[in-house]
Write a sequence for this structure.
């Protein structure tokens, strides 16, 4: 592998990692702050992708679809938290697993009723539908670079929000000790709703952004869910910084694994997880 | 006490007998041929299952819905492409509905379940799609026939066509699962025999669609050509990514026909131009037989037939021939199997026969994507037969 190809693979790995981060950030926050094991997180990713498909079909503009889709998913997250999840924060994990496992089926069935079982595709926006020639055989699609930029911005924004703003501080306080935070006058109920809605919106946004690159298909959430859990476990539950590090690590290991050790590619990420669990059972950045 | 217990056990036995059908003479009296259709009617493969169903019924209807002079009766089970229910669903058709023949299925995992039941009960099974090797290789059976393909059959024909174009060094890429591995086996055999070299084999877990790293690797290897096996949603994604990575037009892409079959819409077609595939059928195959079939199918079902409809149709045609030979007597198994084995099927894909292992001996067409069609360039391999390696009937 020469330097040019190495750099391109590095870019691929980072890009995949950042996408994983968008999905895992919500999962790790929801897990860390509310203590909810949310198996339905992958479904929000799928819902995002299908929203992108449905809304671009209606308006022919991905940008508009992403904005409206994000608003819809915030509303969905807010509503679900109020109606369902709120009542499960203090229930055992098994109850939560049953609830969210059931939600996966409900979302899949709704998806089947609304949009059918076919594979759909979302067109890349005209303005980004070109490629940059990197080597004489390889071009890099502009949309991928655009997505890389958006994901970087989102990751940066999320980090600033969590670590620098007052609301972010409250969220961290809630993750650290929810009872104490409440005793200090933080409205923990509203904070939970906010975090949950944000997590859902991030997952849906990930789905919307990947839609033009990936196809939109049934059960697309379940593959991604497993990777998200790997990221959360490696990074340490509840840590956004950990999720970012772990997502990039998983992205790079997966990318270079596929190329350098193709016969072991599918298990390398899990080997990584096992190693982390062996030496740092709490994850890399347990708070 | 003992009498009460006796009453209880006896009535339980009675109930059991009733539910298992021992006390219901209705089955025996009916003189209809009982046909079990075990196909996916919901889920990802729903369209494929429906197409098989349509084609099969059409073939029977053309003969007045008669098999060897007897009327037919259908029993439908939705297998949901769910391997874990394969044995249970197949047993339901065989034990409860007492079907004379079982048509199914699409998914190879489900087929393993059907295969187990077929081997144990000896019921006639005709496979309209699932291509797993075992059914007509190591686990072949006198009562199991296939009207589709083995997973390695289409890719077996690729090598010669690629070498004819001067593509001597190729990269092979697929999903790492049974069908992908078997397709790879076929490609390797055909390509090496034709004198080609496989410089690298790439794979990713099924049904993962993050191809970017592998495409970058292909660009850095710069082979003469790339050969692949993908199908359905993953296939259209692969085609799209291949074009977006700038590889289309620089490194020719070859594949099993399922790469492009039924997927070429307005959206995908621009990225797919020039892709060469091999398959036993193409919707744009020009022949009197195919034209007539397409017209009749379109009239009846208000939609265009695809390769799955053809395979279902041929399953029906095969069954008609077998039943006619034994005058509808499905208990005369030896004669029935012999007739099926000797059948010549006048298929929309062209005439084909059965191999000793009960898999089609058929022409593989070389097709190129032009516009929204898989245009047939010619026959890539004439009367191609699967090796049937390991089959005891050979």
């Amino acid at each position: 592998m020469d330097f040019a190809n190495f750099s391109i693979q590095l870019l691929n790995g980072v890009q995949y990692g950042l996408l994983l981060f968008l999905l895992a950030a919500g999962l790790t926050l929801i897990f860390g702050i509310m203590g909810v094991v949310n198996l339905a997180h992958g479904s929000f990713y799928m819902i995002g992708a299908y929203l992108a498909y449905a809304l671009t079909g209606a308006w022919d503009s991905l940008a508009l679809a992403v904005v409206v889709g994000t608003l819809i998913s915030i509303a969905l997250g807010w509503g679900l938290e109020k109606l369902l999840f709120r009542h499960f924060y203090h229930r055992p994990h098994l109850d939560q697993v049953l609830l969210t496992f059931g939600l996966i089926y409900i979302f899949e069935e709704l998806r089947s009723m609304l949009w059918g079982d076919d594979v759909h595709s979302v067109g890349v926006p005209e303005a980004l539908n070109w490629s940059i020639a990197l080597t004489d055989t390889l071009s890099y699609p502009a949309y991928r670079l655009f997505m890389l930029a958006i994901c970087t911005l989102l990751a940066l924004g999320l980090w600033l929000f969590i670590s620098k703003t007052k609301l972010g501080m409250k969220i961290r306080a809630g993750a650290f000790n929810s009872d104490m935070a409440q005793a200090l006058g933080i409205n923990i109920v509203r904070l939970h709703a906010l975090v949950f809605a944000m997590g859902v919106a991030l997952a849906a946004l990930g789905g919307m952004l990947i839609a033009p690159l990936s196809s939109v298909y049934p059960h697309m959430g379940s593959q991604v869910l497993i990777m998200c859990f790997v990221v959360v476990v490696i990074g340490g539950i509840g840590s956004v910084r950990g999720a970012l590090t772990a997502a990039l690590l998983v992205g790079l290991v997966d990318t270079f694994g596929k190329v350098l050790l193709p016969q072991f590619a599918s298990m390398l990420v899990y080997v990584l997880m096992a190693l982390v669990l062996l030496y740092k059972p709490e994850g890399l950045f347990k708070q | 006490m003992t009498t009460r217990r006796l009453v209880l056990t006896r009535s339980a036995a009675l109930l059991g007998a009733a539910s298992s059908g021992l006390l219901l003479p209705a089955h025996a009296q009916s003189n209809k041929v009982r046909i079990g259709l075990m196909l996916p009617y919901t889920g990802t493969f729903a369209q494929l299952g429906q197409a098989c169903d349509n084609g099969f019924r059409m073939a029977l209807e053309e003969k007045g819905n008669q098999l060897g002079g007897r009327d037919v009766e259908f029993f439908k089970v939705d297998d949901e492409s769910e391997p874990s229910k394969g044995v249970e669903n197949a047993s339901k058709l065989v034990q409860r509905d007492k079907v004379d023949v079982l048509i199914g299925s699409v998914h190879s995992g489900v087929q393993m379940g059907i295969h187990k039941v077929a081997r144990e009960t000896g019921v006639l099974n005709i496979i309209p799609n699932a291509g797993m090797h075992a059914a007509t290789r190591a686990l072949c059976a006198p009562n199991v026939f296939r009207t589709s393909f083995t997973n390695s059959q289409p890719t077996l024909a690729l090598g010669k066509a690629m070498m004819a174009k001067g593509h001597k060094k190729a990269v092979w890429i697929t999903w790492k699962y049974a069908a992908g591995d078997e397709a790879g086996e076929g490609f390797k055999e055909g390509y090496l025999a034709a004198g080609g070299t496989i410089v690298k084999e790439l794979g990713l877990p099924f049904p993962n669609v993050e191809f970017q790293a592998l495409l970058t690797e292909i660009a850095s290897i710069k082979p003469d050509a790339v050969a692949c096996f993908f199908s359905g949603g993953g296939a259209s994604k692969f085609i799209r990514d291949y074009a977006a990575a700038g590889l289309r037009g620089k490194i020719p892409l070859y594949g099993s026909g399922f790469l492009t079959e039924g997927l070429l819409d307005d959206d995908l077609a621009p990225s797919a131009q020039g892709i060469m595939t091999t398959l036993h059928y193409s919707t744009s195959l020009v022949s009197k037989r195919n034209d007539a079939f397409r017209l009749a199918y379109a009239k009846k079902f208000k939609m265009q037939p695809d390769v799955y409809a053809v395979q279902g149709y041929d399953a029906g045609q095969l069954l008609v021939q077998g039943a006619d030979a034994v005058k509808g007597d499905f208990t005369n198994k030896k004669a029935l199997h012999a007739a099926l084995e000797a059948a010549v099927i006048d298929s929309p894909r062209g005439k084909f026969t059965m191999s000793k292992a009960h898999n089609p001996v058929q022409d593989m067409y070389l097709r190129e994507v032009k516009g929204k069609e898989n245009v047939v360039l010619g026959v890539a391999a004439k009367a191609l037969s699967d090796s049937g390696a390991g089959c005891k009937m050979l």
